[in-house]
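lol so apparently i was supposed to do this last week
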Amino acid sequence: MDWGMQNRMNRIFKPQDGRTVMLAVDHGYFLGPISRMEEPGKTIEPLIPYADSLMITRGVLRNCVETKYDIPIVLRVSGGNSIIGKDLSNEGITVSMQDALRLNVCAVALSIYVGTDHEHQTLINLANFINEAENYGIPVLAVTAVGRELEKRDAKYLSLSCRIAAELGAHMVKTYYCEDFEKVVKSCPVPIVIAGGPKLKSEFDVLEMAYNAVSCGAKGVDMGRNIWQSHWPVPMISAIRHIVHEKFTAKKAFNLFQYLKHKRK
Ligand code: R5P
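anyway here it is w/ ribose-5-phosphate bound
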C-alpha cells in the first residue's frame, strides 16, 4: 500500500491495535432529520472526543461541524434515494472526488446493494470510485446494504456482499453482525467494521453485539443510532470504546456505562 493510503488507514484503524470506533452520522442522506439528529451539530459535537473517525455527508460536515476538530473524516459519496421512495437500493454517486479532497477527507464511503435490482449499478459505482480514489491514495469503505436488505442478515448473504466489495478493491467494508459472523470475517480479505442498525432494546444488547463482533475478528464499529439515540450517548460511546480498544467484555463495558451514566445524573 502506498504511504498516503496506509497513513490514512492508520488514522482510522489505530496502529496500536488495528481497530477503530467510527461514529456514523450520515443517516440524514436518506432518512432526513431522524430522532436525535434533528440538529446534527448538537448531537455530534460531544461525541467527537470519543470517536476515531466520523462517517458523515458533505452537507452536514460543511454546515454543522467546526473545522477545528482533528478527527479523520469518512465521507459518504453515494445517495439519491429516500426512505419513502420506491427503492432504497437505487443509489448513485453524489460527491466528486475533487470535492472529497477539498474537504480533506481521510476516506470515502459508498453503499452497495447485492441481490437487488440495482446490484450492477451500485457495484460499478464502487469500482469506479475506487479507480479514482486510488489515484489520490484515498481509502474506500464499502457499505453493505441497509433497509429492506437487512432481512437478508445472515452469514451467507453478508459474506457474499463483503467479499464482492473486497474483490472490487474496497479497502474496508462495513456490514452487519450476524450468526456465524467469523465466517463473514474470514472470507473477507480487508478489515470489517459493523454497523449498529436500528436501535436495539437495551444498551447491554448493543455492547454484547459489539463484543461478539470484535471477538469474531471485526476491526471495530461504524455505529450510529445505538450510540446517539441512547439517552446516554457519551457513556455509550465510552463503553463501546472500551470494548474495541481496551478488551472489555460486554459485562465490564456495561458496568462502565452504568457508572458513567450515574456520574452524569
Ligand atoms: C446507513 O446507511 C448509514 O450508512 C449508517 O452509517 C449505518 O447504517 C450505521 O449506522 P447505524 O449504526 O445507525 O446503523
